[in-house]
Amino acid sequence: MKIGPLLIKLRMICGDRFAMGPGKAQLLEALDREGSISGAARSLDMSYRRAWLLVDETNRCFTEPLVETLAGGGRERGARLTPAGHKAIAAFRALEEASAVLAESEASRTLAAMIRAEPLAAEERAKDE
Amino acid sequence: MKIGPLLIKLRMICGDRFAMGPGKAQLLEALDREGSISGAARSLDMSYRRAWLLVDETNRCFTEPLVETLAGGGRERGARLTPAGHKAIAAFRALEEASAVLAESEASRTLAAMIRAEPLAAEERAKDE
């Protein structure tokens, strides 16, 4: 998430994998909205295969699966968040919200005050010197 | 930075560029230690060209340059942090330190408690079901 010039990326790791992060949270929210992995993939302009792999990876990282697929129907069969899925998404979004306090820290304000709105072009700088 | 299962990446943006982040902070610290861009590049196993471009980009993002190069000597000529450079690095590292509180938040603890130490292997999961 971006707060002024500060960009904060939070991820939860599980071994050498990412259990949760901005991309997976967005995918699970889309799945909750669309009611299937294929629908979530379409709404995010992502391939079905990629969406399936991300959901599977997340499920394997948590002690309880976050997503359950309904029987039958192939790719178009329904999928939904489990109670653990709703809890994990809510906690991740709360963690992101909590991180906003960093933008108010003295360190962040010090840096922000030193940074231009846009980088000086390489040409202009060469001219200045 | 990594605190248990929580991975936090902080960056300061400037237009469509990164003014400061973990990689640039590490490069500027190496430059401060080694006394030249070429020495910093060598110590980080990075090409001179890439190190030079990163230093230049950072300089163009701040209102005052963070690095100044000394006259003469081509690639081996010295470079050092300016007072603004020391201030920016200290503020960035302080911001990273401040972010550690997020690992103590209820949201982070909730997520951490739901995540396995290692992902379940795809094969094992298939067998479980």
Give the overall shape of chain A: elongated
CATH architecture of chain A: Orthogonal Bundle
Oligomer: homodimer
Largest chain-chain contact? A-B, 51 and 51 residues
Short overview:
Two copies of one chain form a homodimer. Chain A is α+β, with helices and mostly antiparallel strands and 129 residues long.
Verbal overview:
The structure is a homodimer of 129-residue chains. Chain A contains 6 helices and 5 strands, in the order E-E-E-H-H-H-E-E-H-H-H. Chain A starts with a strand and ends with a helix. In chain A, helix 1 (22-34) crosses helix 2 (37-43). Chain A has one domain: Arc Repressor Mutant, subunit A, CATH 1.10.10.10. Chain A has helices at 22-34, 37-43, 48-61, 83-99, 106-114, 122-128; strands at residues 2-3, 6-14, 17-20, 67-69, 79-81. Chain A is α+β, with helices and mostly antiparallel strands. Chains A and B meet through strand 2, strand 3, helix 3, helix 4 and helix 5 of A and strand 2, strand 3, helix 3, helix 4 and helix 5 of B.
